[in-house]
Amino acid sequence: MEPGYDRFIDAIDRAEVVVVGAPTLLETAMVLSPKLGHDARPLLMPFLPGLGAEVVAFNEQHLAGATTALLRYGRGRHAAAVPWRGFQPDG
Hints:
Radius of gyration: 14 Å
Strand order of the largest sheet: 1-2
């Protein structure tokens, strides 16, 4: 697990709405599938309803918000050191 993962779990638990961008799921499948030796989607997709998460498209507005957050809070720029992967702006 990533260091500080508990902060993300707490934020998900407190959130009224949880969304996951389709590009994040793609990246996750790209990383997990080779490690598992098979398609990770059957493992990954059932995990989302347990979080109450909705998969959303990634549009230009999301790109702008995510890029702004990366430049402001990304590793080497802020004490939060938010990694690019896994971050999705409010939908």
